[in-house]
Amino acid sequence: MGVSQHGATERVIGEVSVELYASTTAEDTDFVAKLVDVYPDGRAINIAEGIVRASYRGGLEKPEPVPPGEVIQYVVSLGPTANVFKKGHSVRLDITSALFPTFDRNPNRLMNPGQVTAADFVTATQTINHDRRFASKLTLPVVNSKQ
Q: What is the pTM of this model?
């Protein structure tokens, strides 16, 4: 999505979040969202990022396995940020399942991270939904710019 549809800069100031409606084939996985400023020359600079571990979607007290194939709502906080997207720049939202080495790798299984070995990792297929029923969205606090 191009930010400067009218040739203006856009200021983004405040809490950024992503509401994902996603399913996975794994019993646990991570969903990562990254807000990226894409320059006219193609360079891409991360502005903010956040992660949610699917098994802790109900809280940190007790992990719960993810029902395979079930569409679940996840809210990913990217934290507060402030950035000016200049004329000609674009906003990009990256969704992925890993933020290593910032966060530990998720083996896509419900396991204690300190006990995971290379043999424990399994492949997972993630599906992000965006339709009338499951409208994934980015909340981006755009502040009015002076033209």
A: 0.88
Q: Which residue has the tokens 């969202």?
A: 33
Burial of 143 (0-12, 13-18, 19+ CB in 10 A): exposed
With b for 16 or more beta-carbon neighbours within 10 A and e for fewer, the 22-59 pattern comes to bbbebbbbbbbbbbbbbeeeeeeeebbbbbbbbbeeee
- The length of the chain in residues reads 147
Q: Give the number of other CB atoms < 10 A from CB of residue 66.
A: 22
Integer distance in angstroms from the first to the last C-alpha of the chain?
20
Statement: residue 6 has pLDDT above 80: no
Main-chain phi, psi angles of 10, to 5 degrees: -125, 130
What contacts 68, CB < 8 A, 6 or more positions away?
A: 23, 24, 25, 26, 27
Specify whether the backbone of 14 is left (phi greater than 0), alpha (psi in -120 to 50) or beta. Answer: left
